[in-house]
Fold this protein.
Amino acid sequence: MLIDADGELYCPPQADLEFEGFPDYLRVTAPLGWKGEIYGWDGGMPPSLDEIHQVSEIQGPGWWVEGSVVTLDQPHQVQLAFPHAPIPFHLGAQGEGHAVAIPHARLEVLQDWSPTDPEAARAHGWQVRNASRVVDLASTFGEGTELTAPTLSHLNTATWAVDIPEGTQGLVIRKRFDQFHGRQRARVLLNDEFWGWWCEPAEDRTHRWAWGFVALPWPAHFPHGRVTIGIDPPAGTPLWSVSHLTVHAVM
């Protein structure tokens, strides 16, 4: 398995690769030992490439335009090189000699809490059906950092309330979670309306802790103010694991 993605997608035919599932999802498989590169592009473009800076580190959202190997969206530590088109990032980028176009935007932390804490859950209006009991997980992140912290999983929709300030252009929702089960995915809901997909495909049963995130633009028809965010794993998918949540507004 090389790619497993949701959304409206198109790929031209390519020898030795098998593409399935257009137009709603994409699954790519290849023979054992296949070597090559596959690039995905969602059609979005940076607002302007006029403001390009040579930097070794940037915090917040931007676009990687050219340069050497760079790490995007820490702590994911996704490393890419020689982009064929500008590549967006949301949390930040690090690297030597890379160039990024910086949109006039910043991240503002709206929430930072754990659904496993009963008081925090009540304060944020957390509601969930068919959730597991809270258990302590003692494991490590991929780079070796050790952590013991409570976590839970759920099968059905979990919801909580967020106050969205005026001027918000989008949200970045992050979760710390247990990646014992890979291919976790869920529908993200805004006031019960479908907003987008959140996919966490990686699986690691040795270094079980990970951070994941989803970044979605703010819908033009939605007013700012108090909204309800929902995380809804569809039937047949692995348990959706969550230990800690942060919500950032892109301003």
In short: The longest strand covers residues 92-101. DSSP finds one helix and 21 strands in the chain. The chain has a mean pLDDT of 81.
